[in-house]
Specification:
About 35% of the residues lie in helices and about 25% in strands. By secondary structure, the protein is α/β, with parallel strands linked by helices. A five-stranded mixed β-sheet has the order 3-2-1-6-10. A five-stranded mixed β-sheet has the order 13-12-11-14-15, sandwiched between helices. A hairpin with a 2-residue loop joins β2 (about 30-40) and β3 (about 45-55).
């Protein structure tokens, strides 16, 4: 059964701009809840409020709400701090199924009807238990419309909506988190194919995005916390002290730093090898398929993406330019405002900011 993520929980007619609520996004992940509110100023959008609430370990695991009471409590707390009563909400990448298909017709409703007929060939879920959406990504050689789609278990969608409802937050729209991240990092009209590396606490999420549309996603079960643990083990310090050392030293070679660097690289190399394996697969696929372009660069985001020397380390192995992202790319120029959110900290808010930007695109369409 198709689920139009762009229309779910959205009014049929948008209110006048002066009556519209602030643009808002809420990202629920394993580590916690991140919420942002954006407002339109004279020179463009600005970040007006943001909040983060940590979740107890195990409350939200592998895209599943395990401790509903804890999740609802933290959702309500983050929304209150950020002044949010309604927001766009992310669905977890780990529970998504990206697929490609073709269809005839000129309308999205026609495409969805055709895709639904063979959905079980592309998404490993019973069709009646699947919520999906599709987007036009070009024309196939036979004249049909080439589609990129994403599917979720309807149970995940319903659980997410129920939790936000209990928290007193109106869900305007649901969206896969990789779609939101791309919206935050890329300028309109950027048709390049890029690799987005989202380095979280316990996982690293990879997505290859072409013309703003995710075409490949996967999650690696290693994140920045593994680096913290490596520092703890090497120096015998507390977790807080290890995070400070990690931030200061990163993985930059320095005299007398050899033992520490070896401890860090034993973990970082595991992340690098997983990224390289996935990238090689895509680049080989692109070389033999006219429907795919090779990845031209990589962008790092996430709460653990700011480790010093990490972009340079990856660039040497991936053989493409690698840089840390800017989640404020589509907001007003910093000539006119200064974010209250620290740059390194802001990297963890890419999904939430991308979700908030969704309504701006809709209202200006």
């Amino acid at each position: 059964m198709p689920l139009a993520f762009g229309e779910l929980a959205r009014a049929a007619f948008a209110p006048p701009r002066y009556l519209s609520p602030p643009l808002a996004g809420i990202d629920l992940s394993t580590s916690g809840v991140k919420a942002v509110s954006l407002t339109e100023g004279r020179h463009g959008l600005m970040l007006t409020d943001y909040a983060e609430e940590w979740l107890p370990s195990g409350a939200f695991t592998d895209g599943e709400i395990v401790d509903r009471a804890a999740v609802v409590h933290m959702l309500a707390a983050a929304a209150k701090k950020a002044g949010i009563t309604s927001a766009n909400v992310a669905l977890p990448e780990s529970k998504s199924y990206l697929f490609e298909s073709t269809a005839s017709g000129m309308k999205k409703s026609q495409w969805c009807t055709e895709v639904e007929q063979h959905l079980d060939e592309m998404v490993p879920l019973p069709p009646q238990e699947t919520a999906f959406d599709v987007v036009d990504v070009g024309q196939a050689d036979d004249g049909q419309i080439r589609l990129a789609g994403v599917g979720f278990a309807r149970r995940i969608v319903n659980d997410t909506l129920a939790a936000f409802d209990e928290a007193g937050i109106q869900v305007r729209a649901l969206e896969g988190e990789t779609f939101a991240i791309a919206r935050a990092l890329l300028l309109p009209g950027d048709d390049s194919t890029i690799l987005i590396v989202d380095v979280g606490k316990t996982t690293t999420k990879l997505s290859i995005v072409s013309k703003h549309i995710p075409r490949f996603t996967t999650t690696i079960g290693i994140g920045g916390h593994a680096l913290t643990l490596a520092v703890q083990k090497h120096f015998g310090v507390t977790e807080n002290e290890a995070r400070r050392v990690k931030a200061e030293r990163g993985i930059v070679p320095a005299p007398g730093n050899e033992d520490y660097l070896a401890a860090m690289l034993s973990t970082v190399s595991a992340i690098r090898d997983e990224i390289s394996h996935r990238l090689d697969y895509w680049q080989g696929k692109a070389a033999h398929a006219s429907a795919h372009e090779p990845v031209s660069r990589a962008v790092l985001v996430g709460g653990n993406a700011s480790v010093r020397g990490f972009p340079e380390y990856l660039e040497g192995s991936l053989h493409i330019p690698v840089a840390t992202g800017d989640v404020f790319t589509n907001l007003a120029s910093r000539d006119y405002w200064m974010p209250s959110l620290d740059y390194n900290e802001s990297l963890a808010y890419a999904t939430a900011i991308g979700l908030a930007l969704r309504d701006r695109r809709t209202l200006h369409a």
